[in-house]
Design a protein that fits this description.
single chain; 263 residues; alpha+beta; Uridine Diphospho-n-acetylenolpyruvylglucosamine Reductase, domain 2; Enolase-like, domain 1; 5-stranded antiparallel beta sheet; 36% helix
Length: 263
């Protein structure tokens, strides 16, 4: 590791000032520190967000869950309100990486990084959640812009997430054995307004699948999901899986997620 300075702000305002002056925000560090070790990233100053109390906490507010950006994966997985109101979200958090990653990684860090194979972006987009930042509120549909790219401005920090609680939901993934990232992951949620289906691991960032959503709006069954043809032309192909294999996984995992949601 090379030399750098570590700042530890205790208020969000102080953290915003530091990032505005060029400091790199440090949440759980599961991506940033690894990239620094490999010299893929070389910030001269880090702003550790772990001491900012206003970025923590999980609470149920009516038919919504408010989750602080610095909530660790284990916090979300084990929180009684999340497990009772939104078990699919607790289940997703409980299966991210390994126990060490879940003990350190944060929902805010994961979503801000927007890794194309991360689990949390699928939950945020699939839920139609709202991202609350130091400047504004951003709908999930407007937040994820592509590979490691979001709508966040340079000095803008995520404060919390507002998740509407669906009628039913489920998350299914096929985990890549070495990295534990999903080769493909499907998060689906059914609301009175319709079904949302978010796909991670298969494309240039997380995305919604309109065909699956339309079919499941008509009939929320595994058979309905199976009837949708998945186009592989824009999907990823790498040493782990071809685009055609990922297309098949989208179909199979959606069918499994529907069956799981139906109990």
């Amino acid at each position: 590791m090379y030399a750098f300075t570590l700042e530890r702000p205790v208020t969000l305002a102080d953290a915003v000032k530091l990032t505005a002056s060029g400091a790199k925000p440090l949440a759980g560090g599961q991506t940033l520190l690894a990239s620094m070790k490999l010299r893929l990233s070389s910030p001269g100053q880090l702003a550790d967000l772990s001491g900012i109390k206003e970025l923590t906490g999980i609470s149920k507010q009516g038919d919504q869950l408010l989750i602080g950006a610095m909530s660790r994966h284990l916090d979300v997985a084990n929180n009684a309100d999340v497990k009772a109101a939104y078990p699919a979200l607790a289940d997703l958090a409980s299966r991210i990486g390994d126990r060490q990653v879940r003990a350190m990684g944060t929902i805010g860090g994961s979503v801000a990084n927007n890794d194309p194979a991360a689990c949390y972006p699928a939950a945020v987009l699939g839920s139609g959640a709202t991202i609350i930042t130091s400047q504004r509120e951003i709908a999930a549909d407007d937040f994820f812009l592509g590979l490691f790219t979001t709508a966040l401005d340079e000095a803008e920090l995520i404060k919390a997430f507002r998740f509407p609680v669906p009628k039913r939901a489920a998350y299914e993934k096929l985990r890549q054995k070495a990295s534990h990232f999903p080769l493909v992951g499907i998060f689906l949620a059914q609301f009175d307004s319709g079904v949302r289906v978010a796909v991670t691991g298969a494309g240039n960032g997380v995305f919604r699948h309109a065909g699956l959503e339309a079919a499941l709006d008509k009939s929320f069954t595994p058979e309905s999901a199976a009837s949708v043809k998945i186009d592989a032309s824009d999907l990823n192909a790498d040493l782990h899986a071809s685009a055609a294999y990922r297309a098949n996984l989208i179909s199979v995992l959606t069918q499994r997620a529907v069956a799981k949601a139906l109990g």
